[in-house]
Amino acid sequence: MEISIGKLFEGKSTIIKNNEYLSTEEYVNPFIEFMKKFTNDFYIQVQLPNQFTITDSKEDITYNRVWVQAVMPIKCDKAGYAETYNLIYALDVRKPIYKLFKAYKDRKTNNLFAFNEDWLNVYELKPETQFIEFDKIITDLMQQVDNSELIFNKLKNNFLSSENEDRQRKLGELIEDSMVFETINKGGKIKIAPNMVLKAYQNVYLDSSSRNYISDSEECSMFNYVDAFSSLITEDIKDIVNQFEKNWLIYSMFLEKETDECN
Fold first, then answer.
1. Distance CA 177, CA 192 (A)
2. Euclidean distance between CA atoms 13 and 25, whole angstroms
3. What pTM did the predictor assign?
4. What's the pLDDT tens digit per position in 246-258?
5. Which of 95, 101, 140, 150 could bond to 262 as cystine, CB 3.0-4.6 Å?
6. What are the DSSP E strand ranges found in 91-187?
7. What is the pLDDT of residues 76-115, one digit of tens each?
8. CA gap 38, 34 in Å, rounded
9. pLDDT for 134-185, tens place per residue?
10. Dihedral pair phi/psi, residue 65, rounded to 5°
């Protein structure tokens, strides 16, 4: 669910498993204020809790899963895609965590693209404690060498065979990869579900209403295929916490093999 900064700041502190956690504003405002040095464009997603409490006839809302994305000015774009710096935190999980990462996104669809695992930083979130050294982490990310424009261009200028046999073979490879590839961090194990691979294939080759659809007479660019995956990840409103990892896994499964020379 997308909300405004003002609405986000209404999030109350909470107690989970006898541990007290801070209000939403206490967690996110230092990040927002730091990023205001670079941009005033913020995109915010939350997952609402299942229950609310009422105080003085007003709902007390606790946002246990929050994603704040700072979108850099257009001059920072790579191949027309926006450079973003992101804070995600989750309290109602096995181990409360927060994540700081860099990624690129399509300004129209909000689809995310993650080409470098080193862009992700994951930390355990201790009760009654704010995030540590986020300004240093973000500054370091900004200073890293970034070859995303080369990768975007290569993806857009390389095409998959339109032969049905080749399409089916690629589908099989991706299904197998989805069962093998995984990433593990302090938040746990993240994988791509095989049914997501099937849905992406459907959106590219079978569903003519999909914006990623390619007719039988056309070749599919590698970018169009990964964008189909990214759309499914973006549309999954039940999981805003693992956006980076899932997009990174798609790169590992499908794109990294084709873009080695860009790394």
1. 9
2. 9
3. 0.91
4. 999 998 887 655 5
5. 150
6. 97-105, 112-113, 120-124, 159-160, 183-185
7. 999 999 999 999 999 988 899 999 999 999 999 999 999 9
8. 8
9. 899 999 999 999 999 999 998 999 899 999 999 999 999 999 999 999 999 9
10. -135, 120
Angle at which helices 222-235 and 148-156 pack, to 10 degrees? Answer: 110
Distances (CA, A) of 242 to 32, 170, 201: 21, 25, 22
**Residue 116: how many other CB atoms lie within 10 Å:** 19
Angle between helices 164-180 and 194-201 (to 10 degrees): 160
| Residues in CB range of 29: below 8 A, 6 or more apart | 9
* Residue among 236, 227, 220 at smallest CA distance from 111: 227
Instruction: Name the token pair of 165.
Output: 């046999």
Distance, CA of 240 to CA of 238 (rounded, Å): 7
Residue located via tokens 């409103």: 237
Q: Which stretches of 189-221 are DSSP H helices?
A: 194-201
Nearest to 112 by CA among 263, 226, 205: 226
